[in-house]
Amino acid sequence: MSLPTTRRIVTGHDNNGKAIITSDAVLTPANPLDPEGNPPTGIIPGFTNLYKTDGIPAKAQTPFVDVHGKKIGLVDQSGVYCRIVDFPATGDASDNVNIMHRTQSVDFGVVLKGSIKLILDDEVETIMNEGDVCVQRATIHVSFYSHLLATFTFDGPVQ
């Protein structure tokens, strides 16, 4: 399976406070279940972990820590994740990956390429196209998509 790469550029400051590029790398999607960060196979999605904040509010003066290719949770109460998620094309076929689920977070999903079919627990379907944004507020859902930028902000269990 060949998933698109992403160039990630991270800025920071030198010891004199001057803006600098601290990282400029081309990232290949990794298997989120693999602690070694190997590429996904079969129906496993590819995660390109772009950035994780060190706490909330974000601390822009801390050193950059690269989380790409690391086995990390979908959400984390110690910070905000920003990642690109790539699912292999399965159509509407059941694949045991695109399953109805709830994340304990507020997620912002931006369709980068193609379209997304978003289905909520009442089975209402909404089609999202390139440039569309979904603010997912801890609702039960399933999404069929190919290339999506998402941030995950921990919120805790739904009351």
TrEMBL record:
Coiled coil: none annotated. InterPro entries: OryJ/VirC-like, RmlC-like_jellyroll, RmlC_Cupin_sf. SUPFAM superfamilies: RmlC-like cupins. This is Cupin 2 conserved barrel domain-containing protein.
